[in-house]
Amino acid sequence: MNISILSAVIFVVVFAGVIITHEFGHFIVARLLKVEVEEFGIGLPPRIATLWQAKGFLLLKNGKRLEIPQDFRMILGWPAVLNRELKITLDEVNNQSILRTLEIPMESNPAKASAKDLGLWVDENGHMVERQNPQKQIMLGKKPGEVKLTETITEVHPGTEITLNWLPVGGFVRPKGENDPSIPGGLAAASPWTRLAVLFAGPTMNLLTAVIVFAYLFNQMGIPDYNKVQIGDVVANSPAAQAGIQINDIISSVNGQSVSDQTLLRNVIYANLDKPVTLVIQRGNQTVTITATPLSSRPQSEGALGISMGYAMVRSGSVIQATGYGFLAVYDQISALVSLPAEMIRGQVSPGQARVSGFIGMYEFLNQTVSRDIQSRQAPQSAPPSSSSSNPKPVNPQEPTYFTLQLIAILTVSVGFINLLPFPALDGGRIFFVLLELIIRKRVRPEIENYVHAAGFAILILFMIYVNAMDFIHPAIINLPK
Length: 482
Description:
The chain is an alpha+beta fold. Among the domains are: 3-192, no CATH class; 224-314, Pdz3 Domain. The chain has helices at residues 3-32, 115-118, 192-221, 239-243, 262-271, 319-346, 351-354, 359-377, 403-419, 427-440, 446-473, and strands spanning 37-53, 56-60, 65-68, 73-74, 85-93, 96-105, 121-122, 137-140, 147-157, 161-175, 223-234, 250-254, 257-258, 277-283, 286-292, 307-314. It has a six-stranded antiparallel sheet, with no helix packed on it. Strands 11, 12, 13, 14, 15 and 16 form a six-stranded antiparallel sheet that branches. The protein has a two-stranded antiparallel ribbon with strand order 1-10. α1 (3-32) crosses α8. The chain is elongated and about 95 Å long.
């Protein structure tokens, strides 16, 4: 398969998978805490099909329970039928009361009564139920039942739908009563602690998924030694390359200071711009001393010395140990995101390096990672046979790379972290309102909170349009280590 096509397929699967994982966190915790979920969608609307639907039911004022049949499909909510005296027909089947029809009175002004106002259903074919006697009432349901009564519906429990939708770029969860605390059994009507648990569940699921991906990487590649700094890449014709620094060199000391983390090495390098620095390097079983001069004239994207750094990797077959380092890797990624603004202010990271990529930028980066991972797994080329031997010798085989999995882990951490930011419409913005409620012991009016989240959502949409436009106008240049 063409690498570009493969990358596009992987991009859709990864992006959708990260979002669905996030939404599944909300879904599973909501159900565990008895918060009803009306729909869990795979992909974004319009809908292709309903894969599965739980049985729903209504509770009447007299305590009677009515099962909701499959041909009732709620599309806009149930507020119009709650706490109103309605004419109902039902059938008794196998000791269960099955709802057949509902007769909803019209408003005094018929022009004000619409499907949108009443939150009506559509049938199994997706068509709005036919209106009967439009000047008096709206009839829902196809065939009247044998039992007729006039009663008030006090609670609606529609049952969860698992749906498949046309746009394969994510998923969604639609909790019952998400923004309306007057709906029993809904999210907004739940206790503050329940709402906090449901809201935290999405980002937490992302972070736990990243732990699993990082753990797999460490199990395959080895675990990092956080007390050793290793050279990951050397830029051609850079001061490091001219001084003889090589990939996989371990830096023991710089200017007499023992090096145990990347920050110390970076700080010493940038404190001695245009001055020679002395590096003591561990190269296999050898100890080498090298002098190199970091240059202030070099582009920030390549660094003053022309090296990329990482922690030395030590082989380990322990799944438990790899999982522990998976948690540490997620912590490091979050710490890097938190410290990014300060590093930009200090000039350690340029705005270009810290810019947010849109779909095009993410695809281009993923295309690089997929290409490199495939190349690293291709069979090694054979060198031509020498005069002394008739058997060709393989060229130095390359260790398989895992750039794509690393990118997936980083993207998953980023989605989880960003959703925890206290910005309206994000999980963190909703968490902020719940925490405020716990502090002041009073709930912010739902109407105000909904307006704030709507404004925040509009800002996020505009920001995404800007980011994706910048991918076309000024494409980000991202290169993987050699």
